[in-house]
Amino acid sequence: MPFQDRDQPPAPKPYTLIDLPDANVVTRSQPVGHAKIDGSYLTGRVRFDVEALSSVHVSSGLLRLTEDRRQPLVKALVRVDGVPVVPGSSFKGCVRSVVEAISRSCVRATRSREVPSKLQGCNRKESVCVACQLFGAQDLQALVRFSDMRQTAGDVEVATVPQLFRPRPQEGPYVFQRSVRGRKFYMHGARQAQGDGPIEVCATGSSFAGQIDFTNLSRAQLGLLLVALGQHPNYPLFLKLGGAKPACYGSVRVDNVAVDVVSVEQRYLQWDAGPDSQADIAGLINEAQQLLLQTQLAAVVETLKWPNDRDCPSGTY
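RE: above sequence
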């Protein structure tokens, strides 16, 4: 935080907390697993493009030397063969957080003593919630695999962001009477906050190409994944990924979604078998209704709406 901001009142929080569901809502069941490809479930690939609505930064953890004397070192983007990418693990975490919030799923990524017992993270692979079945849990492999998303269009720029500090989940905004208040989501904003920390970003308007391979998903589970990608016609949402989210970086839109379903029989009969058919996205989303929590879905959509004309804090909040 700049010194001159120390006497200023804190800015409004750039995030909201989505209420947790009732403890009895979480449903757990035996996962299908990977022992065999089950023809009664869906196996295939989701293909999509991602558009950067604001600058995107996913840090490699390295510094990059520039020719600008004012900013000789900047935090570098992740690159593969010299091309900026959004790692599949980063996008997977982004999508998982939405799936967990809008479905009958457990609460992870926090201390278990702050979560009601029936909402605590899945720890038995024989009985797991829908999010853990999709994305994996302890001793349980995920049913979805996210590719790295290569930048296919757009520029790489150097931006300057405010100094950001780690979350303090033990503090009042997050915990009430020793119980976690909700799931944290950062909002979008109209203008990115500026500071003195130089970082590399994929510029606004950049495009990325990605895919998600899936194995043994029910139609409802695949529909839930599509809802989290912002494809529900009545509940559009726009994801946030990467670094500097409080400063309004990382706003993206998922476009041009196609779902290829493979025929298990043809996969064994033809070594170069392609997709057997394209799934009906609207039908899949309709079947996901049984897994959705409507109150939480509406709250996430309101939080992740675009455009949003709010200002992003450049100092303390």
